[in-house]
Design goal:
This protein is mostly helical and about 300 residues long. The protein folds into 2 domains: about 220 residues, no CATH class; about 60 residues, no CATH class. About 60% of the residues lie in helices and about 10% in strands. α6 runs antiparallel to α7. It is globular. The C terminus is likely disordered.
């Protein structure tokens, strides 16, 4: 029997760790995080100031220098560049690695059993429900005057997926072990919130309480209205960041899964090349927009006027 196509817009739980549900997207993000930390510690121990650095050192230095030059090109200030660089570089590398890991051969095809529904919880839910279920078990004939009872079942779980191991046994469903963290809206939403919150932090640290003047301005009716628009814009950034990254990565994974399921592995190869490009661009766009917002938040009106006068 051919393998069935599995597409889920939400991440699935693969492990229950002391009541904490670990989804496949969290598992993937942990792999990327541990890899980045481990690689950074290893490279730091192997880094040498020498005229003939290793190929690995040349490669890492090229990436770091390119990212720093990218940050400095926007800020044009070494102090700000040194402040923003670690965050922007982390955003970029974390997002790109997650995007690429989701395209790695075998990711999405290694299946495990999802365990987060118990038979006892299902029975309790069925007993508490007063409405008859559509998938109810047929009722046997009873004597007149006696009450008939119906035993309800969960329509989302089939009999083959039930582990008949007694009360409290789990209901299992095969789900992918790994899923790109950026294909999970929870992860992209978290990244967006971090980006927007840090924008406010940098704005306050550079401008003090004067930073909030762009949100609360009673000097004129127009200024007050613009302040309201600025507050709406800050909230809209979260939604825009989260859904842009999630939508592009998730849509790409669905496209590859459908094409592979329909026509095999070799034919969708051009789509893999396209998704490699999209994965890089999405990481670059998220990082660049975050950097632009950081830089704008740390500029006061006097600084902007001074730059215009110099130009």
């Amino acid at each position: 029997m051919a393998a069935s196509l599995h597409v889920s817009i939400s991440a699935e739980t693969i492990l229950n760790f002391f009541g904490l549900e670990i989804s496949n997207s969290i598992f993937t993000s942990l792999i990327v995080s541990f890899f980045l930390v481990g690689f950074a510690l290893y490279f730091r121990s192997q880094f040498r100031h020498t005229d003939k650095p290793s190929a690995l050192q040349n490669f890492v230095e090229m990436i770091v220098e390119s990212l720093y030059n990218f940050v400095h090109f926007i800020t044009e200030n070494h102090k700000k560049s040194a402040l923003f660089f670690p965050i922007i570089a982390t955003f970029f590398i974390f997002i790109v690695l997650n995007n690429y890991l989701g395209l790695f051969p075998g990711v999405g095809y290694v299946m495990v059993q999802e365990q987060h529904i118990s038979q006892s919880d299902l029975s309790t839910q069925a007993m508490a429900s007063t409405a008859p279920a559509e998938t109810a078990v047929p009722v046997t004939e009873v004597a007149e005057g006696e009450h008939a009872t119906e035993e309800t079942t969960d329509a989302s779980v089939t009999h083959d997926e039930t582990a008949d191991s007694g009360e409290g046994s789990a209901l299992h469903k095969a789900v992918p072990l790994m899923r790109a963290a950026t294909a999970d809206l929870n992860t992209t939403l978290a990244l967006a919130i971090i980006s927007v919150v840090l924008t406010q932090v940098f704005g306050v640290s550079h401008l003090g309480l004067a930073y909030f003047k762009k949100f609360i301005d009673f000097s004129s009716p127009i200024g007050f209205f613009v302040g309201i628009l600025e507050m709406i814009l800050e909230t809209a950034k979260i939604v825009s960041f989260a859904f842009r990254l999630f939508g592009n990565i998730f849509a790409g994974e669905v496209l590859l899964a459908v094409m592979t399921y329909l026509v095999g592995v070799l034919v969708p190869a051009p789509f893999y090349a396209l998704e490699l490009f999209v994965g890089f661009i999405q990481g670059l766009v998220f990082s660049m927009l975050t950097l632009l917002f950081f830089n704008l938040a740390t500029k006061g009106h006097h600084e902007e006027e001074h730059e215009v006068a110099q130009a």
